[in-house]
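ok so I'm stuck.
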Amino acid sequence: MKTEINPQNTNRQEAFNLWMSSPMPMVTLVKTMDVTKLLRYSKKHGMGFNMLLCWCIGKAATTIEEFYVLPEHGKLYKYDCLAVNVIVNNKKGGINSCDIPYTDDLGHFNHNYMSLVQSVSQSGESSFHEDAMVIGTSAMIETELDCIVNQYAKEFNNPMVL
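replied:
not stuck anymore, here's the structure
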């Protein structure tokens, strides 16, 4: 669920004012990290590496207040929950978007991840979690770029982590 908040009463007042006048409000941060331990955990526990990576992104985001706040249509909103977005290959050879509700419970997150990704893959229809602040993710295998990029997309104005 989201609630409208007054930007002037938050630590995001200046950022909100900049977002509202910026032609490209989305900023993508890219950081190369060593994920060897996560890969080992994935193999040892039989859990998907991408699912674990998404869970870690959600876990880290829960500790940062700003991940719950999003400007939309000239207003500022605060969400009470997070979701992590993944891109899913569908059975028709295309791709779809899939939002996975974040939970601290890794087993529950894994179950949601597997069932939602499978459903989207089979149906070929994207699945969006409208009541959550959604963190966009993507991955480029074997890429070691560290950069910050502005991306203009009027539909997606939420933080994305690559």
